[in-house]
Each structure stands twice: as structure tokens, then as C-alpha cells.
Write a structure and sequence with these properties.
Circularly permuted type 2 ATP-grasp protein, CP_ATPgrasp_2, Dna Ligase, domain 1, 4-stranded antiparallel β-sheet, 2 domains, alpha+beta, ATP-dep_Glu-Cys_Ligase-2, UCP005522
């Protein structure tokens, strides 16, 4: 297992400042600071919800005090690879709703698109402004050694977690200002400006002056409501709910005490199915009647576009390297994890013969649920999962069990290695870019490979050094 803090038993240069800081403070003082940080998170309302478990669903995501550190050279590869991948995914989404060239060339099977529950026929023939379906894309990465990171999955629909990236940094800078005095840790606090600029760049051409931006939330009962309100405050834009909005003459308006105000770009944080009751779920009270027609008529831009979720599919994931070659004429910078489609008979045979060694996932699964981690499962769990695969082979993919990198994490008695992943947030507008840092999630349970907050994972501040 690769420990990101060490090389050949010696502390890597990127972590030298962290090692000195840890030695100067000691675990007791840092654990006191961790409790202080968690009290601060709860006071400002940084919680997430887990439904269906009974009791109070509001929880804090555990915050680890030890930052994860990337050198500028390491980050350059992550940045370039994440941008490349996002550009290809946006080209793919535009293509599958228009010419379908990648299908005609025999690269991506049509049934993976047409049979995908996230595919939205209402978007057929439509090209969004700038050819961008996914304006905010989360690329989940895992590292296996000093030189190799794999893309684990793509999040093109409504990736969450950016509020933790920014709040983690705010808390670390407030509690340990000495760590930032050198100026070598690159800032992340310009994310709001970057997102607002990207949204303005895809505004409809017939705006009345400066484009008006807003964020659409399903309301305060949503598990990510804190993030919705946080982003609205950060960007200085309105946070609205469906009943606050209406469509007239293919334009979107917000009800205000001074009369209707036009909204030009709407960052929606609700699912496709609730977005427009005239097109999707007729019983939706969360969306805006007529907004899809307004979008297709050029009266408003929706961020992210309906139908973007096709690219989140774990069966589609397999073809992203070919998308990069097909649309961009480039070789992938960040590789996929080797993946087998259980819907293909020869690959299914391999998976069934090797369930003890593989990680098997539902094609439409998320949150770390519904997985089989072969090496950590009992014989009965494996046999039960085998029956699930046999009942619906096309609903599953399988991957080797990777030896994920570990990062130093604060335990009760000192540092312990724990597995981590990384989600950079790629913003696409007139340009495609990302802030130097991302959401590092950490599996706090010893030996666990599951970093999701809903299953006990925590988060870390993520540093990118300026040199």
C-alpha cells in the first residue's frame, strides 16, 4: 500500500512542513482542535442527511485535521487529465442527443444509451450553449502509487461536495494560520467567481444587460441544502425554489416584491424528473412548468443540462478513453480502472469465476451502496451477490480490487494510514478549468475502502503546493 507521506521510508518533500507541524502540536492538541472544528461546522450548519435510518438524520461529516498534499507537478497531471476527460464527456453528451456519430462508428453501443434511465428523449436534437451539458463535473480519482491515479467514476449530473472543499480550507486557515504564512499553498477561495464567470459565459444571447444567475434548490429538507445556500451566498446570487419561478414567453422569471425579475442562467440542484412537470413527473412541486421549452427556445440556460446523467453510468464509463480519442484525437492522460461488463457473456464468465478477488458495482449505483468487495466478503455474501448478477447481468460491472493509496490521518493516539480518494470539480464555460484542490474523502475505518460520507467516511483539506 502506497502511503502518500513517504518515499522509501523517508518523508516526501511535499509533506515535510506537515510533519514538522504535527511534531510541534502532538495528537492531543490536534484532537482538541478537531473537536473545536466540528463544533464550528455544526454551528454554521455544515451537515448532510442520511434518510431511512430513523432518528435525527442530520450528521456532520468527520473532518480530519491532517491535510492531503500534492506537489505542483502532481497536480498538473490531475488538472490536465480532468479537463481532458470533461471536454470529452461534454462532446459525448452533445453527440448522443444529436448526430450520434460515436454510435454510428460502432464505439459505444446504442443500447447503453437508449436503455439508460438517465437518457432524456426531450433533449434530442438540442445543442446547449457552448455545447456544454455538464458545466460542473466531478471526476473521482484513486491513487495506487506515486505516479499512477485512476479515474473511478464521473459525476456529470449534480456533483456535490464543493462546500466542504471551501469550508475545510477556511477552518484550517483560521485554526492554523501558521501553515499558510509561507504562501506556498495555492488558494481555492475563487471557486465562486470561477463558477459565476462560467455561468455568465453560457447565458442566452438576448439577456437584458448583465446575465442574472440563480440556484434552484428543492428546499431545506434536501440532504445537500447547506451546499445550495452556501453557494448562493458565495456567488452573491438568489437561492430559489420552484414556486418562486415562472415561465412566460419562453423566458424564466423570479417573483420578487418589486415584480418579476428575469433569470438568465439557472444552476439547478434538483433531479431531472422533478424539473418540469409538463415534461417529466407531472406531480412535481419542486420544478417550474415550461422551463424545458424555455431552455430549448434559448430563453434560459440550465446548469447542468437535463440528460447529463447518461455520462454517470458505470457502463458508459468504460468507453470514456475511446471518447477522448474519438472527439479530441488525444490519448487519455488519466486511465480508467480496468473494468468488465457483466452484460457481455465472456466478461461475465471471468467475473463469476473471480468474485472473491473483484469489486462488483451496480451500473446505476452510487454512494458506495450495492457493492461487493470480494476480498472482504464472506462466502455467503459472495453467493448472494452471485444470484443478483445472474438475475440481471447487464446491471453490473466489475473491477480489480485496487491497493488504494493511504494518507496520514489523525487517530486518537496519533497518525494512522487511511485510504483516500479525490474529487476535483471541473467547471466548463467559455473555458474549462478547476481550482487547485478538490474533495479528499477518507475511509476512517481501518482497512475500509469505502470513503462515502453516508458510510462513515470523512473529509480532509486538500493542498496543492505552488512549487
Amino acid at each position: 500500500m502506497f502511503n502518500e507521506m513517504y518515499r522509501d521510508g523517508e518523508i516526501r518533500p511535499e509533506y515535510r512542513m506537515i510533519a514538522d507541524w504535527l511534531e510541534a502540536n502532538g495528537p492531543d492538541a490536534l484532537n482538541e482542535k478537531r473537536a473545536e472544528a466540528e463544533a464550528l461546522f455544526r454551528r454554521v450548519g455544515i451537515t448532510f442527511a442520511v434518510y431511512g435510518e430513523g432518528g435525527d438524520p442530520e450528521r456532520l461529516i468527520p473532518f480530519d485535521m491532517v491535510p492531503r498534499v500534492f506537489s505542483s507537478t502532481e497536480w498538473q497531471k490531475i488538472e490536465a487529465g480532468s479537463i481532458q476527460r470533461t471536454r470529452a464527456l461534454n462532446a459525448f453528451l452533445t453527440d448522443i442527443y444529436t448526430e450520434r456519430a460515436i454510435v454510428k462508428e460502432g464505439i459505444v453501443p446504442a443500447d447503453l444509451i437508449d436503455g439508460n434511465e438517465a437518457y432524456e428523449p426531450v433533449m434530442e436534437g438540442f445543442r446547449p450553449p457552448g455545447g456544454i451539458f455538464s458545466h460542473i463535473c466531478g471526476v473521482d480519482l484513486v491513487r495506487v502509487d506515486e505516479d499512477t491515479s485512476y479515474v473511478l467514476e464521473d459525476n456529470c449530473r449534480t456533483p456535490s461536495g464543493i462546500s466542504y472543499v471551501l469550508e475545510n480550507r477556511e477552518v484550517m486557515a483560521r485554526m492554523f494560520p501558521e501553515l499558510f504564512r509561507s504562501g506556498i499553498v495555492r488558494p481555492v477561495d475563487h471557486y465562486g467567481d470561477m463558477l459565476a464567470d462560467a455561468m455568465r459565459s453560457v447565458a442566452p444571447p438576448n439577456c437584458d444587460g448583465e446575465p442574472t444567475l440563480a440556484i434552484l434548490t428543492p428546499g431545506h429538507f434536501n440532504s445537500a441544502y447547506y451546499e445550495h445556500s452556501f453557494l448562493a451566498d458565495l456567488m452573491g446570487v438568489e437561492l430559489v425554489e420552484g414556486p418562486d419561478l415562472f415561465v412566460e414567453n419562453h423566458r424564466l422569471y423570479m417573483r420578487t416584491t418589486k415584480g418579476p425579475q428575469r433569470i438568465d442562467v439557472l444552476y439547478r440542484r434538483i433531479d431531472d424528473s422533478f424539473l418540469d412537470p409538463q415534461v417529466f413527473r407531472k406531480d412535481s412541486m419542486l420544478g417550474v412548468p415550461g422551463i424545458i421549452d424555455a431552455y430549448k427556445a434559448g430563453g434560459v440556460t440550465i446548469v447542468n443540462a437535463p440528460g447529463s446523467g447518461v455520462a454517470d453510468d458505470k457502463a458508459i464509463y468504460i468507453y470514456v478513453p475511446e471518447m477522448i480519442r474519438f472527439y479530441l484525437g488525444e490519448e487519455p492522460i488519466l486511465p480508467n480502472v480496468p473494468t468488465w461488463r457483466c452484460g457481455k457473456p465472456d466478461e461475465l464468465s471471468h467475473v463469476m469465476e473471480n468474485l472473491h478477488e473483484l469489486v462488483v458495482k451496480e451500473v446505476h449505483g452510487s454512494g458506495g451502496y450495492g457493492m461487493l468487495i470480494g476480498p472482504k466478503s464472506t462466502e455467503q455474501e459472495i453467493e448472494d451477490y452471485r444470484k443478483r448478477i445472474e438475475a440481471d447481468p447487464a446491471g453490473f460491472i466489475a473491477q480489480p480490487t485496487l491497493k488504494l493509496s493511504a494518507a496520514p490521518t489523525l487517530g486518537d493516539e496519533g497518525l494512522v494510514p487511511r485510504h483516500v480518494d479525490l474529487r476535483p470539480f471541473v467547471i466548463s464555460g467559455q473555458e474549462t478549468k478547476l481550482i487547485p484542490g478538490g474533495l479528499t474523502r477518507v475511509a476512517l475505518k481501518e482497512g475500509s475502502l469505502v470513503v462515502n460520507s453516508s458510510q462513515g467516511g470523512g473529509v480532509k483539506d486538500t493542498w496543492v503546493l505552488d512549487r
